[in-house]
Write a structure and sequence with these properties.
- It is a single chain.
- With 401 residues, this protein is α/β, with parallel strands linked by helices.
- It is built from 8 helices and 18 strands.
- The strands form 3 sheets. It has an 8-stranded mixed sheet. Strands 8-7-6-5-2-16-17-18 form an 8-stranded mixed sheet.
Length: 401
């Protein structure tokens, strides 16, 4: 199982105001070569990601308030990682956190990048060096992700983590059909305004062995945080390239994470969980049966009480009877911009909803992104539930009616 290490970051959120997040549900076009999963269109993919970065840097409407930008697993071409980090360093606003998965590279290449950013990755580097010393594994493919934090003073900090779950769900006799298993995951602790978050890569969320599970390690760490500091894990983000995002395995873990069936778990009771999957245009991944990519979602405890909505672009439910409220998006290529819940308990004296969608963006013919009009997002028939969740006002989004 992995070890959780705390990382203090200087990110100054506005006191008493919610954070804003953008989830990018974009496609991956992948192929398998040299026992690794690689993007087949790295240049086109970088141009698509760069167009998102350019829109965030421009900040139309209230996009200037963006705090968290999330891209899926294996979304970033490895050859353009430095281009992405340079863009974030030179153009993004301070107090911005960018999370993105990167296509597979070999372990010796991953080690070299860890050494380049050694200052923020000492524990992960030490773990990789120990593993390399113990076996001939330099060529093993590594599925990895980056969390790039642009701090209050403009300094860019780069944190790396490798997926801990083996390749395609199962171990095989041939070791080169397995991924390198990362053993160090960061827990980010923002100061001076307390906010704590983690990033996992797809099946890391459900992985377990005979002794423990990844998610139980997260819960134990969050509970320890609560009992020692009275802080919680505020945000858990899962980066996915997952043809079965609603598989029973994920449903079971969500149920256990929020259910408190065997013990109180105050460290995660109010955690917001974001599943950021690729869109239904994804190609190159062979699966048995249907492969409904997409369905990125936001999950919070049932005490937040998201009202019933059912629109073409998103709907709310309880994930088949779980003790949660879930906002479930569609399968198409979209950028979803929303706020994270600020209050841990529903306050009857306010009219605020805990979760509000400020805008949904779709690709336009010129390769850029356009904000969908409210009437396009919220079309419904006469049998749809009452509207209790709405897009941000057009004045807030910078668009006139």
């Amino acid at each position: 199982m992995f070890k959780i290490v705390e990382k203090q970051i200087n990110v100054e959120f506005t006191l008493g105001h919610h954070q804003h997040c953008m989830v990018c549900q974009i496609p991956n076009h992948v192929g398998f070569g040299e026992s690794a999963c690689k993007l087949t269109d790295p240049q086109d993919k970088w141009q698509q990601i760069r167009s998102i970065f350019e829109m965030v840097a421009e900040g139309p409407g209230n996009l200037k308030k963006l705090h968290f930008l999330v891209l899926p697993e294996s979304a970033m071409p490895a050859a353009h990682v430095e281009d992405a980090l340079d863009f974030i360093r030179n153009h993004f606003r301070a107090n911005t956190v960018t999370m993105f998965g990167v296509e597979h590279i070999q372990l010796h290449e991953y080690r070299a990048i860890l050494e380049r950013y050694r200052e923020d990755n000492e524990e992960a580097l030490a773990s990789v060096l120990k593993d390399l010393d113990a076996g001939d594994i330099e060529q093993v493919p590594t599925n990895w992700a980056i969390t790039a934090v642009k701090e209050t003073d403009g300094r860019l900090r780069v944190f790396l983590q490798a997926k801990s779950h083996p390749f395609v769900g199962e171990e095989t006799i041939d070791p080169f059909h397995d991924l390198y298993r990362g053993k160090v995951f960061p827990l980010f602790r923002c100061t001076p305004i307390a906010f704590n978050f983690m990033v996992l890569i797809c099946l890391d969320y459900v992985y377990r062995d005979l002794y423990q599970s990844n998610i139980s390690t997260v819960i134990e760490k969050a509970n320890d945080l609560f009992f020692t500091t009275r802080q919680r894990l505020d945000l858990l983000t899962i980066l996915e390239c997952n043809p079965k995002p609603e598989h029973r395995a994920f449903q079971d873990v969500v149920n256990g994470f929020y259910g408190e069936y065997l013990a109180y778990t105050p460290g995660v009771r109010d955690t917001v969980t974001i599943f950021n999957n690729v869109s239904d245009e994804t190609t190159g991944i062979k699966t048995k049966g249907e492969a409904p990519f997409g369905y990125s979602s936001i999950i919070i405890h049932k005490s937040h009480k998201i009202g019933p909505v059912d629109y073409p672009e998103f709907a709310s439910d309880d994930f088949d009877g779980l003790p949660v409220c879930r906002l479930r998006f569609g399968t198409e290529t979209r950028l979803y911009y929303f706020n994270l819940p600020l209050f841990h308990e529903l306050d009857p004296r306010t009219t605020r909803f805990p979760l509000k969608i400020h805008g949904i963006y779709r690709p336009d013919p010129d390769g850029r992104w356009e904000r969908m009009a409210d009437q396009d997002v919220m079309q419904e028939d006469e049998n749809s539930p009452e509207k209790k969740c709405s897009l941000g006002s057009t004045a807030e989004s910078g668009t006139k009616k």
